[in-house]
Design brief:
- By secondary structure, the protein is an alpha/beta fold.
- The chain has helices at about 35-50, 65-75, 90-105, 120-140, 155-160, 180, 190-195, 205-220, 255-260, 265-275, 295-305, 330-350, 365-375, 390-400, 415-420, 430-440, 445-460, 465-475, and strands at about 10-15, 20, 30, 50-55, 80-85, 145-150, 165-170, 200-205, 225, 235, 240-245, 280-285, 315-320, 355-360, 380, 405-410, 425.
- The protein has a 9-stranded mixed sheet with strand order 5-4-1-6-7-8-11-10-9, with helices on both faces. The protein has a 6-stranded parallel sheet with strand order 14-13-12-15-16-17, with helices on both faces. A two-stranded antiparallel sheet has the order 2-3.
- Helix 10 (about 265-275) crosses helix 13.
- The chain starts with 8 loop residues before the first strand and ends in a 20-residue tail after the last helix.
- The mean pLDDT is about 90.
- The protein binds GDP-alpha-D-glucose.
- GDP-alpha-D-glucose (GDG) binds near residues 322 and 391.
- The site of GDP-alpha-D-glucose (GDG) has 19 residues, from strand 12, strand 13, helix 13 and helix 14.
């Protein structure tokens, strides 16, 4: 893995990898958070040291001494955690409001769900300023600052306005929309200007990069863009350079695969299969989110059972849905819609000894998750739009017997890397999804092995360490001129 040479790494994300929680004795403690970012950044910080800055949860109102809790947590670490003090009200408006009711739907191309409230935008700016101030209180001369995801788009600009000259990079975990969609946001000039405060901007796919460059070309008067597909692009504005690259995020393949081979997972996999004798298991695992295409998937399954009555009792759909953002009205409505569909399908097709859908509305432990992956004959990863989708990659890594088939939406970032061996579908086209499920159900063992083996090779090669390494190399390669000691980022000339 490439290191950051003599530069200290500062990782910034909405949440820290440790979060304040009340334990059974009603005392506060820090719990370890999980997820792709934690998996990606922890080994780098362990190796090189550095600082991780983010929100540690709601501690201000509860009068908790967060510093003390963090100190205990950091005792045996060679890197530091630093929490950003944000009160619950501001966090709600910035996180639930601007991040998840404006940027999330807009960037996933469903702008009808956007709530363009000026209050949200004000809170977004205020919280991003707090992040910037916290970063500055930690900063030393040569630090490299790596900011993650849409919640913190403005943080770089806040740092530049306060005179920070360090190299600052940004990675967007979600898609970047086409210009026609992006331009609907009332603060489009401010948002694009904020993204151009970074020296390096990373996206998941070539398409996201292309969309971003088109928006820049249309909104910034004097931007010159030098781009070639599959290479880092350069935007020059008023002699300042910004690099734009594609870095598809991944997983720790070996860790997933080794754990999937463990005795515990093997035993649970067998038990799961025994629960559904003579049935092909199809699996959907998603956070509750309208971008994941869960109702569309259920409707395709309903159609499959209507069109091919002989498949009844021979297939089983396991749909796991992890609760998320239920205090946002669209998410609450979506949950009702999904549960109604599950009830309707189970009501219509169930027979003694067979229920078409096993539905879980809770999250699984890692062991359970891996066992579900291993036991499934088909993974249905059919989002309407997704930055990458790690479930697709995790399914491959856990498919020890190479007998699973991945049905993957062409609108998931993962499809760019896995398109040759996954069965690609357009999740909006119900009939074609039905046909592809039928194809997967009758696929020959040899073909399954070949396709799965190819996908495993790709995910293993381009794993999470490759991702971090490639990103860090790209920032090290920023030209010396680009690390501009006079950099101020006064607003660029924007087209109206
Ligand atoms: C964003 C972007 C991008 C799910 N259910 C359980 C569980 N999970 C874990 C999976 C996977 C993660 O959650 C979901 O990751 P995704 O990539 O699918 O989706 P988002 O949460 O929307 O993440 C996305 C990602 O950022 C990274 O850049 O790929 O496009 O939207 O790791 O395993 N984990 C456990 N139990 C569950 O029930 N333990």
């Amino acid at each position: 893995m490439q290191n950051t040479e003599d530069r200290r790494l500062i990782v910034v994300s909405n949440r820290l990898p440790v979060v304040v929680k009340k334990n059974v004795k009603n005392r506060y403690e820090l719990n370890q958070a999980s997820g792709g970012l934690v998996t990606a950044m922890t080994p780098v910080l362990k190796r090189d040291g550095g600082v991780w800055i983010g929100w540690a949860g709601n501690y201000l109102e509860e009068n908790i001494d967060i510093e003390e809790l963090l100190e205990q947590e950091m005792e045996n670490l060679n890197y530091r955690y630093r929490s950003v003090d944000i009160n619950l009200n501001d966090h709600e408006l910035y996180y639930k409001g601007f991040s998840n009711e404006v940027l999330w739907p807009l960037f996933h191309n469903v702008s009808v769900y956007c709530n363009f409230s000026a209050n949200y935008y004000e809170a977004f700016k205020k919280v991003n300023q707090k992040f910037a101030r916290t970063i500055m209180s930690e900063l030393i001369d040569n630090d490299f600052i790596w900011i993650h995801d849409y919640h913190l788009i403005n943080t770089g600009k806040e740092l530049r306005e306060k005179g920070v000259k360090n190299t600052i990079a940004f990675f967007l975990h979600i898609p970047f929309p086409p210009a026609e969609t992006f331009n609907r946001i009332p603060w489009r000039l401010e948002i694009i200007d904020a993204m151009l405060s970074y020296d390096l901007i990373g996206f998941q796919t070539e398409n996201d990069k292309k969309n971003f460059l088109e928006v820049v070309a249309s909104l910034i008067e004097d931007a010159t863009i030098d781009q070639k597909e599959e290479e880092i692009a350069t935007i020059v504005i008023q002699k300042e350079e910004h690099k734009v690259g594609v870095f598809p995020i991944s997983i720790d393949y070996d860790e997933f695969s080794d754990q999937a081979k463990s005795e515990e997972v093997s035993k649970m996999t067998e038990e799961l299969k025994e629960d559904y004798p003579g049935q092909k298991i199809m699996l959907g695992i998603d956070r509750l989110d309208y971008s994941k295409g869960i109702p569309q998937r259920l409707k395709a399954y309903r159609r499959l059972l209507e069109k091919y009555p002989r498949l009844r009792t021979k297939v089983k759909l396991i749909q796991v849905m992890v609760p998320s953002r239920v205090d946002i009205i669209e998410y609450a409505n979506l949950k009702s819609e999904i549960e109604q569909l599950v009830g309707e399908i189970n009501g219509k097709f169930s027979q003694p000894g067979w229920i078409p859908i096993m539905y879980c509305y809770h999250s699984l432990s890692r062991i359970e998750l891996l066992s579900y992956y291993r036991a499934s004959d088909i993974a249905l990863v059919t989002p309407l739009k997704d930055g990458m989708n790690l479930v697709a990659k995790e399914y491959c890594s856990a498919n020890i017997d190479k007998d699973g088939v991945l049905i993957l939406s062409e609108f998931a970032g993962a499809s760019y890397q896995l398109k040759d061996d996954a069965l690609l579908v357009n999740p909006f086209d119900e009939e074609s999804v039905v046909d592809v499920i039928k194809e997967a159900l009758s696929m020959k063992q040899r073909e399954k092995k070949k396709r799965m083996g190819n996908m495993q090779n790709i995910v293993q090669k381009f794993n999470i360490y490759w991702w971090v390494d490639t990103f860090l190399k790209a920032q090290l390669a920023l030209s010396v001129d680009n690390i501009n000691p006079t950099r101020t980022h006064s607003q660029y000339l924007l087209r109206c």
